[in-house]
Specification:
CATH topology of one domain: TIM Barrel
Strand order of the largest sheet: 13-14-17-20-21-22-23-24
Strand content: 15-25%
Largest sheet: 8 strands, parallel, barrel
Structural class: alpha/beta
Oligomer: single chain
Shape: globular
Length: 576
Amino acid sequence: MHLPSRQTLPFLRDWGADPVGKGVWRFSIWAPQADSVAVTVEGRRTPLRRYAEGTWRTEAPAEPGETYLFHIDGRTIPDPAARAQSGDVHAPSRLVDPTAHCWTTRWKGRPWPEAVIQEIHIGTFTPEGTFASAARALPRLAELGFTAVELMPVAQFAGRHGWGYDGVLPYAVHPAYGTPDDLKRFVEAAQALGLMVILDVVYNHFGPDGFHLAAVAPVFHPEKATPWGQVIDYTQPPMRRFAIENALYWLAEYRLDGLRLDAIDGIDDPSDPDLVTELALTIRNYGFDRPIHLMTEDNRNITRYNDPANGLRIAEWNDDWHHAIHALLTGESHDYYASFARDPLDDIRLSLAEGFVEQGQPRPPLTEPRGEPSGHLPPTAFVIFNQNHDQIGNRPLGDRLVTLTDPAQARIAHALLLTAPMIPLTFMGEEAGTRTPFRFFSDHKGDLAASIREGRAREFPGLHGDDLPDPNDPAVFHASRPDRAPDAAEWEALTAALLDLRATRIVPLLKSGKPDATVTAAPPATIDALWRFPGGTLRMTARFATDPQATPPKDPPLFAIGDPATDPAFALWIED
């Protein structure tokens, strides 16, 4: 029996407010250009002392629940590393005792080959949009066979609802979802069901409203920008610690199982080691008592972070897989689908065999090569998906794949996703065939709201007026909750059967070592794949179109969908 245990402070941060004794807190902030810095706690003012690199620090009497603000050369700002706010992103920060929560269970984590991930957005995952209501919805995912949930960012952003990628308080839990302890209770509820919890974190930019630190410190590179905002200057050691400590903070204080690092190609850091490498090595050397899993999103298709030989053990979100599947099933060829629309079936073949599709080879109509060879990486170095928040929500109307293609083809793609030896990820509702859109939404007012509307209109010039949803219309947010489809039970039965097969027969193969892969593609739309693992052989056939020339397999498959003679079909065999 495990008795409740009070959490201890994992480490003393270089940023923010931490308890250092009964009724005493340490306050720290970086303001290298300031002449004077003070903190007020419920109106009680204490000056801070300047230390190396322009960090200011003091200890002052304070209690959990009290509010505080920093005063820097006459400017008043909330704590950029606050654990919570007393209101919106402009309000005073609130002291949260990180040791108050009592964990009632032990958790030793799960190995990466067991990962089957469902990506969820807390605000739309349930009608209530809270950590508490999301926790109550988790048993169904565990019963279907999922082993992990990945949360879209929960750090506080401006407004009540949004995707979370424009956060401005990376240490604070977004209050519309609940309190810091509510998130910890969610994590514990998930882990009690055997579900790992992975958090999406954003280190490539800050949101446009409420990041007050930039007014008092040289946070950004003066001449560089990302598509989403100014480039953070990680050559500044305090900013580097801000990000690395943030990663440790989420993992240590919230007992998370891993992190997804959003769009690391937007991190421009010439340091050696660069931020991602140092962050990963710091986590690996921290001494966690459970496996910690890291993922990156990186449009460059580079492999140095994902190669096990480098010791970083980072998996990569493989957008190439999605693009090839999407181009095959929908016929779309615009924008980044252009190079995948030429021969999507062969692209799926290459992705199943080697991971990335674009590996530096010529890929018309691309004018410059993209990517590096990836065949040396194990399949578990890649996270694959048929859809995710980006690939649904960045469409003008937020269409899901099942609404864009034949349902039989969608089921074949689902079966291939959940049984391929890469790590599968689904987006909330996908496991039940939901047709509900997931749209881009935010909660801004005035000029910022207008600029977002104008930006969407420029991005999708073929849609005008009411044809293009207004991201700041609350109805767009509410309409993005996954409804239960009429055939949900059939989809869930398929998902459960596939994930049971994965857990009992495929995961042991993944744990046995890297396979040799042989994958072929044949017209009109058939993939035959074979992976020889040290522990056995996995073989499958996926046919996405009717083929009058097809013949039934000679040996009965372990699992099958569709008519193996003619119709879109999927079949799988395992030999020990």
